[in-house]
Design goal:
Elements (H helix, E strand, L loop, with lengths): L3 H10 L2 H11 L4 H8 L4 H12 L6 E5 L5 H9 L4 E6 L2 H11 L4 E4 L12 E7 L8 H11 E12 L5 H23 L2 H13 L3 H10 L3 E8 L4 E7 L1
Parallel strand pairs: 1-2, 1-4, 2-3, 4-5
Antiparallel strand pairs: 5-7, 6-7
Helix pairs in contact: 1-9, 3-8, 4-5, 7-10, 8-9
Length: about 240
């Protein structure tokens, strides 16, 4: 069997960004359903909890990176209804679904989170969910978050990770590595996308390494919180 790490590295060298963009556009109309199935209905609660950590201020401006169908941006507005939210993504089909869902309450814009078409020091907070393992340069992603934040602004990232305890890691692996790709392929019609998901998680950095990259670009008060029995990590940093 091919090593998951080698598969991910091969995709990086042959334009991982194009692969990821095409994959997400292909599953756009089933993406929300699959998030509900994969997280046992908890993905919206996870986003709301992470949005609270972002601390969007009253009448503030928030940025949802790799916004997809806009759920994280919507969570920010639940936490602070007066906050204006801009969602940026390069997967246009995903944002098309989001525009229908949220009908103007979020401003959607095409863009790459590694090279944002945004002036520096514009946003009070930035968020992103389930995206860091899909980018080709995590440090650059954090550098762009830092650049577009105002002084004192917060960056919050939500990402899947492997549990630390061996027993729970084994149980999680049975579902995540074996059952979930089959379910995802059946519901979405794209089995490859849901084989890629566990591969990308296993090939990704450990939470402590992610936190170090945040510090390296200038974030202070960096913290990592593990939630959902250690299967999700929330990264928080302040500019």
């Amino acid at each position: 069997m091919a090593n998951p790490q080698s598969k991910i590295e091969n995709r990086k060298s042959s334009d991982k960004a194009a692969y990821v963009r095409t994959m997400f556009d292909h599953i756009a109309h089933r993406y929300d359903l699959m998030n509900t199935v994969m997280t046992f209905g908890q993905h919206q609660n996870l986003r709301r909890a992470a949005a609270r950590l972002a601390q969007p201020p009253r009448n503030g401006l928030a940025l949802d990176l790799a916004t997809g169908t806009g759920d994280f941006g919507a969570a920010l507005r639940e936490v602070e209804p007066t906050c204006r939210v801009v969602g940026v993504d390069f997967a246009l089909e995903m944002m098309g679904v989001g525009r229908v869902k949220y009908d103007g309450s979020i401003t959607f814009a095409a863009g790459d989170m590694l090279q944002l078409p945004i002036s520096s020091s514009q946003f009070d907070c930035t968020v992103n969910g389930f995206v860091l393992r899909n980018v080709t340069d995590v440090r650059q992603a954090f550098a762009e978050m830092y650049r577009v934040l105002k002084s004192g602004g917060r960056a919050v990232s939500l990402e899947i990770t492997s549990p630390r305890t061996p027993v729970w890691r084994s149980i999680f692996g049975l579902y995540f590595d074996h059952a979930m790709p089959r379910i995802g392929g059946w519901l979405s019609g794209d089995a490859e996308a849901y084989r890629y998901l566990p591969q990308s998680v296993h090939a990704f950095l450990a939470p402590e390494q992610v936190a170090e990259l945040m510090r390296a670009v200038g974030f202070r008060d960096v913290a990592v919180r593990r939630v959902m029995l250690g299967t999700m990590a929330v990264y928080v940093g302040t500019k």
